[in-house]
Specification:
The protein has helices spanning 2-26, 115-120, 161-171, 200-212, and strands spanning 42-50, 72-74, 83-88, 93-101, 109-113, 128-137, 150-158, 175-180, 189-197, 218-222. Helices cover 25% and strands 32% of the residues.
Length: 223
């Protein structure tokens, strides 16, 4: 009888310990570049915009060519090649995108989608949508603070897309055009930015180089 009681008592305890060990061994950190986020936790919430006009074929911050038809996105701090799921909370549509660029530079936005990605979550017409970001695969260590301030250089603002494209072309690689949708306005304005910097000192150094080339700019801190 005592042996039977020992068996009844020991087996549940061993089973519980095995479950705990398995759970511990199965945990994954979002800091591991080749692993996913098992908890499916929200990385970030905020507004998404999309870009493409005047930028297709240009070099992105990751030094690859931008393709408006690819499922990619710009983010200020997520490592390149990180894959995130973007959920449009207004219609619950989602798309997975790979981070290959830096931006957006509007302070109230957290991610800038390619045209194809924006189309997948039905936000082309409105231009901006409330979204949630979920980690799918980390390209490298994920920063603890995704809202860490970064800096860019604003070099122009145009009402017409073709003028914005011509000016961007005169600067060359490193420049990007962002559409800004303003309430009660039929057409967007086109903001032109140059570079993405982790410190204001780096931004100032790059601005001096632009000024030597004959361009003027304004350093903007992006929170």
């Amino acid at each position: 009888m005592k042996s039977l009681l020992r068996i009844i008592f020991i087996y549940p305890v061993l089973g519980y310990l095995l479950l705990v060990l398995c759970a511990c061994n199965g945990e994954r950190s979002i800091e591991d570049g080749d692993q996913e986020n098992p908890a499916n936790e929200i990385l970030q919430t905020g507004k998404a915009s999309w870009y493409g006009p005047g930028f297709d074929g240009r070099l992105t911050s990751s030094r690859e060519r931008f393709d408006k038809d690819a499922l990619t996105a710009a983010h200020r701090t997520l490592p390149f090649d990180t894959i995130v799921e973007v959920v449009n909370t207004e219609n619950n549509k989602s798309v997975e995108v790979r981070i290959n660029d830096r931006g957006p530079y509007a302070q109230d936005r957290i991610i800038d989608l390619s045209k194809a990605a924006a189309e997948d979550i039905d936000m082309l017409d409105r231009g901006v949508a409330e979204v949630e970001l979920f980690l799918v695969e980390a390209g490298a260590t994920i920063p603890e603070n995704l809202n860490h301030p970064t800096y860019t250089i604003q070099v122009g603002e145009y009402n017409l897309e073709n003028y914005a494209e011509q000016f961007a072309e005169s600067i060359g690689d490193g420049v990007r055009i962002e559409q800004r949708f303003i309430p009660d306005r039929d057409r967007p304005i086109f903001m032109i930015y140059y570079g993405n910097y982790n410190s204001i000192a780096d931004a100032r150094e790059e601005l001096m180089k632009l000024e030597e080339r004959g361009f003027e700019g304004l350093i903007r801190q992006i929170n």
